[in-house]
Task: structure prediction
Amino acid sequence: MGLLLVGPLLSTVAGLLLLGYAVREAVYQRRLRREGIRTEGVVVRHNRQMGTEGGSHAMVQFVDAQGTLQEFRAAVSGIKGLPVGGRAPVVYLPGVPKSGRLDLASKLRFALLFPAVAGTISISYGIQVLCQNR
Result:
């Protein structure tokens, strides 16, 4: 019976970690909205992910407030909405240009909602199975 509980326990723990990440992301996004410096960037290339069909992340360059060229990999992107050479709105924290993110509501929302939904489903599954095995 003990081994039967390992899966649901792992699912519950994974869900809690995902929800924790979602909360951390929400706090970070709020800080970006309040304190972030907004600028224009340019998509310079796409890094394709190995093993995925058509999956890629945009590499975006922008000039920070000190005039230094910065580059970051967009955490959530794709070729369709962000073509090479296209403009990309960027937001970053003052004094931390490496914190650059795409300033697109849809991309920021996905980075927050995906772990929140996945975490909730994982926790719900784990608790349901644990309660059934009681």
